[in-house]
Amino acid sequence: MAEEIKVVVFTLGQEEYGIEVEKVKTIERMMPITRVPKTFDFIKGVINLRGVVVPVIELRGRFGMAEEEHTDQTRVIIVAHDEMEVGFIVDSASDVIDITSDDIEPAPEVVGGIQAKYLRGVAKFGDNRLLIMLNLAEVLNKSEIIKLEQLEA
Amino acid sequence: MDLNQYLSMFIDEANDHLQALNEHMLELESQPDDVSIVQVIFRSAHTLKGMSATMGFEDLASLTHQMENVLDMVRNHQLSMDDFIFDTLFRSLDALEAMVGDITNGGEGKADVTEIVASLQSIVSGDYKKEKSADESASEQETSAQSESLDEFQRSILEQSLEAGMHVYHIRVELREDCVLKAARAYMVFQVLSQYGEVVKSAPPAQDIEQDKFDSGFSIFFVSQTELEQLKHEVGQVSELESVEIKDMTLEDVRQWNQRADEVHTSAKETAATAVKPAVEQDKPKSAPTASPASTTQAAAKKSSASPAPNKAVQNRTIRVDIERLDVLMNLLSEMLIDRVRLEQLAGELKQHDLTETVEHLVRVSSDLQNIVLKMRMVPVDVVFSRFPRMVRDLAKSLDKKVDFIITGADTEMDRTVIDEIGDPLVHLLRNAVDHGVESIEERIAKGKSETGTVQLRAYQSGNHVFIEIEEDGHGIDRDKILSKAMKNGIVSPDKAASLSDEQVYQLLFASGFSTADKVSDVSGRGVGLDVVKSKIASLGGHVIVESKLGQGTTFIVQLPLTLSILSAMLFTLGTEKYAIPLTSIVETGLVQKDDIRRLHGGIRMIDYRDSVIPLLSLSALFDCASYSDMDEDEIEIIIIRKGERLAALAVDDFVGQNEIVLKPLGNYLKNTPGISGATILGDGQVALIIDPNALLK
Asked: Which CDD domains match (chain A) (predicted)?
């Protein structure tokens, strides 16, 4: 039996991405962000989410894509994973769809400029649309970035 | 019946009882003759037994039952406390604690206690004394002599009877050796006596006599209005009696009975076996050192305002509240504080009289509320301190040292979250004090000090901080020894060593992998510990200072914040950004003119402050602030911050003002951001970061 999965769909550039709905706490419009110094460039800072301080990261920056001006469509997806609560800034968040776990195929090396390890897989849906499923554990893994930076330095 | 719902209650109460048992045992050790303490201990043990049995923790119940047996005998003067009994009871308490700990962690509370139970049983049966003494008969005589002594209750009955004009007789009955049914004859004697008065006490006890557990005779304390002669006649009617001695006792006789019994028993001992005597004398010096620290602990506890004894009598009217609920309450309150600040701003803008008045009232009520909620989370440090006397006692004993342990200020209150974390660091420091600080007895005598060392644990509040001091009058810290060790370990370079201040040298103790103990002992000296202590205390927002005089002793001073969640802070801006800095680390604020700044090579800027020169740190440069740079200003606002002895000035843009802010974590993702200790939400809903001045002063 294939498992049914509800997925929140959002976009970065032309690509459509998905995060399991149970990992998503809320989706917010852009709000004032307080910059936190001495952190990675893609960490935009912290927001006040109804009394709780939540860090937000620019997902484009996280994946090494060019950052763009925020628009009316820009959304912050608040995800909770492994005791961490983080907001992802994305170009837009459109809807929630159902897929089955069978639809997800392993990701090729690089999809839309993102390394495969950040991805859980790729799913086909609707009329030939491609949904890239994120691997939250890797996206939120900071130690790996620190290692990278040390190599570059 | 589902017992799970009672489990947490059981654990709480069991811990309370264990704590009480520990405390009173220590108390008893200092006053082994005080029966009232035994009563208290007995009651605690009894309650614990009942609770454990109800909850189905059989091992716990059976061990407490054995303890109860021993305590019962002590209570009834059938047994007097000695070193062996104390040690066995303390070991039992440890086992009980381990079992309760196991239950707390979801276990079954099972443990192998057969050895301890066996020791306890040997105490009850008196066997352990036989093991000690060469002559068995001596100890037997001892028990028989002791069992004839009167306890307080019995004595008071006899005294009252005498005062009421009744006769008190001491009757000694010897049965004939050829008597067949000893128990039956004895029963008949009791039967006869019961017609004329009341048997207050018999030795051996009545149930033993009934079960034939006596040799050839027994004695009875008897209260009656009948005359001696008639009584003698009546008892004499019973056949197969060898002799009946009846003595009419006076008030004096009753009062001195126990003393006489003791004399009888010691003289019996002396005549029976000379081998016993050295054994007894050997015991004495052993018990002396253990008793003395406990007695002073006792004295100190009485001096301090949080003396446990009088408090115990008055039961506090309290309810237990899940700490999580208090946390929720705290969170809700901090939400409200944010709204309060916002309301204040709005009212200020609208300038409507009624609104302003209402908001002012709200402000007063909510700050009262804030105080109460904060107080609710406050716990006296006694919660942590109370387990230390026992620990120090055991430690001193195992190291063969004499230590007076004095606690003061146990009623000082701190936030629950700090209390929970502070226990382990303090254990480390106390162990160090007893192990490395206080010298061995010989060494102390050689140095001309009193052979008993003193370790003091003091807590007091000062401003927004609580200070905990651990002071001992031992070795003191040898500056040269530390330096040579530090140079050997490569922590300090030789040329730098000479320029270090004493305080800086002492701080080397906290470097990881550092230990000056010549020998690695069981207790400490492995070079781990003090660095852990330091990082733990630093993580609580506190720090440790060391003061020492070589040969006179060392004091560790731990400074801790009262609470972790609400703090007074100074808000300031850097261009468009707002930051907060805790008031506790601010010395003062001020202005400097650009021309007054001295520039050293390497771009370091210094300013004159009072009589010294301190570095001027540019926050905007440190934090890569785009919207402001202090380099462009002619007049710079500065905040002087302090960490220990070190001072520095922070260049900022503008002061906003002082505020009570609620500390919020940055979230796990941004944990350990350098220079930032957290965030707070301002009245307008914006997040302001809280600066960690300690990180800036590194």
From this structure: CheW
